[in-house]
Amino acid sequence: MRYELWDIKQRYPNDIAKAVLENREVKDAEAFFKSDYSLLQDPMRFPSMGQAIKRIKQAKDKKQKIGIFMDYDADGICGGAIIYRTLQKEFPGLAWYVPSRSEGYGLSNNAIDYFIDQKIDLLLTVDCGVKNITQIDYAYSKGVDVIVFDHHQLGDKVSDKAILVHPLSEEDNKLDFKSFSGGGVAFMFAKAYLENSGQEKWLLDLAAISTVADMVLLKDDNRIIVKYGQKVIGKTRNLGLQLLLEVAQVNTDKITTYDIGFLIAPRINAAGRMSDPKKSFELLITSDKKEALRLARELDGHNRVRQEELTAAQKKACDEVMKNHLDKNKIIIIKNKSWNEGILGLIAGRVDENFYRPTIVLKDEELMRGSARSVPGVDINQLLSKVSKYLESWGGHNQAAGLSLKRKNYEIFTQKIVKIASKIDPSLFQKKLSIDALVDFGQLNMDLAKTLEKMEPFGYGNKTPIFACEKLTVESVNTVGKNSDHLKMEVCADSKYGSCIVFNAFKNGIDLKRGDIVDLAFNVRINEFRGNKKLDLVIEDAKKIS
Question: Which of 28, 75, 158, 370 could form a disulfide with 210 if both were Cys (CB 3.0 to 4.6 A apart)?
């Protein structure tokens, strides 16, 4: 078994699809299935959106110069590219700045000085800025106005000088749904600025990438953005993205959230992790085919190097946890001198997944920078807030955050956060599989699979539906895959047979043989090969009964 607990939401419902919608608290099934673009909220419902547009139009009338500062991840870079492409015709001299990871997260005085040298009058921050009160004050002291387009958790204070376009801001907030990514906020600005003309739809490719990459809730407006963004990616007019898709060998006939999350976004992130994030932004704004192809190949190369380094580092980190019994605490903290700062979050994610503990991974140097990941129910941002006096900087979401601290504070920081984490409810550390429904094997058919397909796109907050069946008999088992690490099975119940696939079976502790009686947890998919369609069960977990 991969999971200690199966959390079954409903048992033997008559209408499986209805049960899935109920589990996701979908109140309007018709709107959910339709997810029409017209159902997106009016972007003018965003706090200060009208004020931001008015200031930008003033800059146009006064022939003032605009600068764009963005975060260095896929969300920030795609958001920055959305705003750049929205404004580039009216502001041909647009300045922009993508910080490197070594500069740290958020707006810096160094970046502001760069923009001052570029003689800008108005600075737009994308996917960052809400906590940079001191830096915003510095910009204003130099005669630069600031508009913040951000979505991260608000601090105790916000700038009283900047125009804040933020879905969580309480000032004149008329939004029904507020869980946008940074790129999602940028897209809604583009929609408002372009007066819902339809031109903004060609920016949905970048908005969808940012939404999936940043793992925000895939509900309501975000679901619409990703649904239509997938279509736009398949026929994108963005030259750099076109060539990145070619280099990554992405099938553009049907773009999925898997393609975005595992093939596209990692390549956009790779430059920032392994080299210079400016390359990713340049790729998304260039109109030069030769330049775009060069950049696409570079990002693909950086991604390969990242994968190689990451595999070795993740193994070393997990070995260290086991060797030193670091998982005896309710939070795992690892430091290392040699790991590339750009992959620390991915290492933390693997440790978190393997040991089911919130994890912090730090680069061991005088100023220790790092990343944190957490398990459902444990807010890592809240944990960090309780020890913030030992930190130089921190911020993020409840499941993922970045931080930095001075080496001299490492021991006290570790002691304090371990002590605070020790009070967390231990039940939160049981690896739990959420199952939509326990169903009869005979209820699984192509009609159900087709209905479930209409619930796509799947992702955080709208996960792929998982079902369970009891007491199935394993009729046949074959190993498949390059390294024979997957299992292909036939199972049977009440004279009904079904085909199953178990990916990375042995790694996940699922070792089955013919004749076993098992309870299976799985998702349902339609497998199409040479024009023939059949139902496949993709196994998530198995309980052997006998």
Answer: 75
Instruction: Go through the domains of the chain in sequence order and give each one's CATH number.
Output: 5-34+431-544 (2.40.50.460), 38-301 (3.90.1640.30), 325-429 (3.10.310.30)
Q: Whole-model pTM?
A: 0.89
How many residues appear in the chain? Answer: 546
Summarised one tens digit per residue, pLDDT across range 427-443 is 999 999 999 999 999 99
pLDDT less than 70: residues of the chain: 1
Q: Long-range contacts for 252-258 (Cβ within 8 Å, ≥24 apart)?
A: 255/230, 255/231, 256/230, 256/456, 256/457, 257/212, 257/218, 257/226, 257/230, 257/456, 257/457, 257/458, 257/459
pLDDT for position 1: 65
Give the 3-state secondary structure of 339-403. Answer: CCHHHHHHHHHHHHHHHCCCEEEEECCCEEEEEEECCCCCCHHHHHHCCHHHCCEEEECCCEEEE
| DSSP character at residue 122 | E
Residue 372 pLDDT: 96
By the 10 Å C-beta count (0-12 exposed, 13-18 middle, 19+ buried), 107 is classed as buried
CA quadruple 31, 25, 201, 250: dihedral sign: negative
Tokens (6 digits) for 545: 């009964």
